[in-house]
Amino acid sequence: MDFDDTPDEAAWRQQVRRFLEEHRSTLVDPATRHDVAAARARQALLYDHGYVGVTWPEAAGGRGGTPMQQAIVDQELARIGFPGLINLIGIGMCGPTVIVHGSEEQKERYLRRLLRAEDIWCQLFSEPASGSDLAALRTKAVQQEDGSWRISGQKVWTTLAHLADYGILLTRTDPDVAKHRGLTMFVVDMKAPGVTARPLRQMSGGAEFNEVFFDDVVIPDSERLGEVGQGWQVALTTLMSERLSLGGGGTEIGAGVDAAAAHLAARLGAQSADRQALVRQSFGRAYVSSLGTRYTGYRLLSALSKGALPGPEASAGKLAGTVAARQLSDLAVRALGPEAVFASTADGENLWQQSQAGLPGMAIAGGTNEVLRNVIGERVLGLPAEPRADKGVTFRESLAQSGS
Ligand SMILES: Cc1cc2nc3c(=O)[nH]c(=O)nc-3n(C[C@H](O)[C@H](O)[C@H](O)COP(=O)(O)OP(=O)(O)OC[C@H]3O[C@@H](n4cnc5c(N)ncnc54)[C@H](O)[C@@H]3O)c2cc1C
User: For domain 121-229, which CATH number applies: 2.120.10.90, 2.40.110.10, 2.40.128.130, 3.30.365.10?
Assistant: First the structure.
C-alpha cells in the first residue's frame, strides 16, 4: 500500500478538513458532547454534506465512495477530536445487513433515515445464555395464522436499545434442527407494545447498554430479513460488518497514541532520569504495538480498496487494537500514578480513567479476545478446531444435554 495520498485523495482530504474546520465548534462542542439531540444533529450535519455512509451505495442513501475516502473522513474526524457518530451500530452493523438482505421497501423506508440519525438502531443478538456461542440463543419467534410473528425472550448488552427506534433481532424459529439452522432475523420496532429496554450501569459510569425484554411482541412478516431458517447467514453479514467497523481502518481503538504521547511528555519532565528512561522504553513498546494495529488496519483497507473481502485480518486488527490500547493505558497509569485518575484533556474528558474503565468492554464486544485468538488459531495458523459437543444434534437436544 502507498501511504501517501494520491492527488485525488489529497483533494478529498482538503475538502473534508475544510468542512470540519468550518463546523468545528458545533462538531466538538464539549457542552453538548453527551447530549443525544445534539449528537443526532451532528450526524445529520455530516450526512447532509456527504460525510456519513461514504462507501454505502447511492441507492441506499450513501455516497458511493471508496473505502479510502471513508478512512480519510475517519482520520480527519479523529484529528479534530470528534466524539463519534451516535448511530454507529446502525451504520456499522444494522444498515449493511438491511442493504444485503432487506426488501426494496425496507431499504427505502429505513436506510436514509438511519444515516441521518433520524432513527437510531440497535443490534439484538446476545442473550444471558448466548454471547460467544451466539447460535445457542433462545428468543422464540412463532408464526401466527395471519403470517405475523410473535416474539418472546430476552436480549442483553444491547448497545443503545434505550434510545433505539429499530433493531435487528435474531430469533429461534425452529428448535428441532441444528442450532445454526433454526434461526430467523427480523427488523423490530423498538417502540412496539411488549418491548422493554432497561439500561445497565457500567463501571465507566455510563449506561449505554441494556437488557431488553420481548413479551409477545408482534412483528409483521414483511419485517423479516432473509428467509425463514436463514438467520445465521444474515447474522454473518452483520458480524462481518462488525469486525470491519471495529477492525480499524488505520485509526486507533480506545486510547490514541498521540494523546498518550502528549500527556506523558507534558508530565515526565518532573520525574528522575531513570524513571524517564523506563517510561520511554515502555512507551516505545506500546507505540510499536499501536503502529502494528494501524498498519494491520491499512492492510484491511488495501484489501477492501481492491474489492477483495477481508480475511481474518479484521479479527486480528480488533484484537491487536484492544491489546495495544491496554498497553498504552496501563503505561499511562503506571507512569503518572494517581495523577492519571484526574488528568483531563483539553475538552475536559478524562482519557485514562475512561480507557481503564472502558477497555475491558472493548476486549469483549464484537468478539472477545479469546474467541478472536481461536479464529486466528483455526483460520490463519491452521491449528486443530476446538471440540464441539453440540455437533450433529438439534438445538432442543443440546439444551437437554446441558440440563437447561
Ligand atoms: C461494550 C459492549 C457492547 C456490546 N454491545 C452489544 C450489542 O449492541 N448487541 C449485542 O447483541 N451484544 C452486545 N454485546 C455483547 C457481546 O457481543 C458479548 O458480551 C460477547 O459476545 C461475549 O459474550 P458473553 O458476554 O456472553 O460472554 P461468554 O461468551 O459467556 O464468555 C465468557 C468468557 O469465556 C470466554 N470464552 C467463551 N467461549 C470461548 C471459547 N470457545 N474459547 C475460549 N474462551 C471462550 C470468553 O472469552 C469470556 O472470557 C456488547 C458487549 C460489550 C462489552
Answer: 2.40.110.10
